Amino acid sequence: MSVLQGLVAALSDGSVQVIDLTTPLSGDTPILNLPQPLANTVGLSLTPVSNFDDAGPAWAWNDVTVGEHAGTHLDAPVHWITGRDGKSVDEIEPSRLVGPIVVLDKSAEAAQDPDFLLEPEHFEEWQRDHGQLPENCWVIFRTGWSARGGNAAEFVNADENGPHTPGVSVACAKWMAGNDRISGFGVETVGVDAGQAATMDPMFPVHSFLLGADKYGLTSLRNVERLPVTGATLVVAPLPIVGGTGSPARVYALVEGA
């Protein structure tokens, strides 16, 4: 039996399961909102073209309007000024969009402190427990934040000082950008940076360092609590938008014995 035949058989008998990590995309899906005078993207809207009517008696279809960075989406390097000469979403090699998952679970810490930040020592602790990061891995930051996804206000968690959501310190963003085993970084929150990242130096360090280092971001993930710390495989499927700075994506994990 070939490797691919073995995978198909494992999917068929349930010994490998597909876990959907994607937030359903609708007009109610929370999106990032920047303060004035900065411009904002749009969420999803559907405009009917026909719906089993005179305009199309046997078919229904819609025109879709959606921002590149709405819902569960991929950030490509050209999204940020540090990566502006890098890859657009259509130029990312498919092999970079499939890789082993590394879960850093800080859900307990985030429950106590919504401004919790991931630090380099958290990666050092992980590697002491589980070994070196695998090649071409995707780091998934588990915070439990997706449990808030049904309520936009709780999900954004903003006050007069802006949103308060867990994220990554400047030092940790530099660490990840400098690690050649990491392909991307995924979060349960609306953006890959912390809610208070605008107050950091540089601002939005995950965007700045990772996208500038030809690494990729994933946001608004769900079902992260179903992932093992190691051993799962991520599959990221963005639209190959020519020149796109990002794309809504369907994101799956292949998990053995789930």
Automatic annotation (TrEMBL):
Recorded source organism is Arthrobacter cupressi
Against InterPro entries, the record matches this protein to: KFase/CYL, KFase_sf
What is an example of a GO molecular function annotated in this UniProt entry? arylformamidase activity
What's the domain of life for this entry?
Answer: Bacteria
Q: Which Pfam families match?
A: Cyclase (PF04199)
Q: Which GO terms describe its biological process?
A: L-tryptophan catabolic process to kynurenine
Q: What is this protein called?
A: Kynurenine formamidase
